[in-house]
Design goal:
- This protein is of the alpha/beta class.
- It folds into 2 domains: 117 residues, D-Maltodextrin-Binding Protein, domain 2, CATH 3.40.190; 100 residues, D-Maltodextrin-Binding Protein, domain 2.
- Helix content is 32%, strand content 23%.
- Helix 1 packs antiparallel against helix 8.
- It starts with a strand and ends in a 6-residue tail after the last helix.
- The relative contact order is 0.22.
Length: 230
């Protein structure tokens, strides 16, 4: 989990919103508002923290599943979709295993890393593999990671021949990895919702953060980071 602190766009330190956000939002959220207080991690883990009463003003996830569950329980306001994404295969720089297609991942001896079940990137990956009839790739797994940054780190370090991540994470990683596109017909529907936590301690600052993400400025930064429109 990554944390960042500062003063918020709303001004004083006491007005800083605490934002719990999917790890794939790490770079872009810190760019949109570098002064909010952040906790980045798996969307499922962050939802559990909200259920347990952890301090939080805003929740942004990589899947509607958990925000909708929290909303049903009265723990957050109605979620709004603010961005979309797509999956890609990433391989270490130089692609030492010579991966070209999803089918290559099912070859004996290939080491693949994906997100764990219940984590959005893991669930999306399994959806893609199922839609392609390539569940045999799961036999090549060497690791299930808690969030997309864990998948990316394993591939970048050469601990796996390939992994499935969001296109935005591959872009942010730069030369550390190489991305292989997936067929558009196989893509999962990747949507990012944002919502205010019920009884947020910094309600005004939280609303300002949500408004900033949904604003033309926030949306432009999301596009520049490689996210798709809502």
């Amino acid at each position: 989990m990554v944390a960042g602190c500062g003063g918020s766009s709303s001004g004083t330190a006491g007005d800083r919103p605490t934002v719990l956000a999917a790890s794939s939002l790490t770079e872009v959220f810190q760019s949109i508002d570098p002064d909010a207080k952040y906790s980045f991690g798996g969307s499922d883990e962050l939802a559990s923290q909200i259920q347990e009463g952890a301090p939080a003003d805003v929740y942004a996830a990589a899947s509607p599943k958990y925000p909708n569950q929290l909303h049903d329980d009265g723990l957050v306001d109605e979620p709004q979709i603010f961005a979309t994404n797509r999956l890609v295969i990433v391989v270490p720089s130089g692609n030492p295993a010579g991966i070209e297609t999803v089918a290559d991942l099912a070859k004996p001896g290939t080491k693949v890393v994906i997100g764990a079940e219940g984590v959005p990137i893991g669930d999306y990956t399994r959806t893609v593999l199922d839609s392609m009839g390539m569940n045999a790739v799961l036999d090549s797994l060497v690791s299930n990671e808690d969030d997309v940054k864990g998948v990316l780190a394993k591939v970048a370090a050469g601990d796996a021949d390939a992994g499935f991540v969001y296109a935005t994470d591959a872009k942010a990683a730069g030369a550390e990895v190489e991305a292989i596109e997936l067929p558009a017909s196989a893509q999962a529907k990747v949507e990012y919702p944002i919502t205010m936590v019920a009884d947020a301690a910094h309600e005004e600052a939280a609303q300002q953060f949500v408004d900033l993400v949904m604003s033309d400025e926030g949306q432009q930064q999301l596009r520049e980071a490689g996210f798709g429109p809502p």
